Amino acid sequence: xxxxxxxxxxxxxxxxxxxxxxxxxxxxxxxxxxxxxxxxxxxxxxxxxxxxxxxxxxxxxxxxxxxxxxxxxxxxxxxxxxxxxxxxxxxxxxxxxxxxxxxxxxxxxxxxxxxxxxxxxxxxx
Length: 125
What we know:
The protein contains 1 helix and 11 strands.
């Protein structure tokens, strides 16, 4: 059974940093496109970053240059390093996995079959 579990959320002031983790179990992690999404109150789900099976990375324009997605050495964990956080980054952050490649999945939520429960990030000004 595929399971994803996020951790690392919290409250920080504007300009601060957080590192989120997504622990994966139950499947060959390296066979999936992995992604981070976020959803702010009253807003739609937004794709943040993806990491392809070959290690290729993609970022949403809103976070490029501030956020970095990476994998652990055993590929069973994914990280999202978030720097220069702003109040607009306040959201529930989710990790997700798709059997298709990231090129096909893009940031379409329906392409991702597996989701974590989410971790809250709150940035105050």
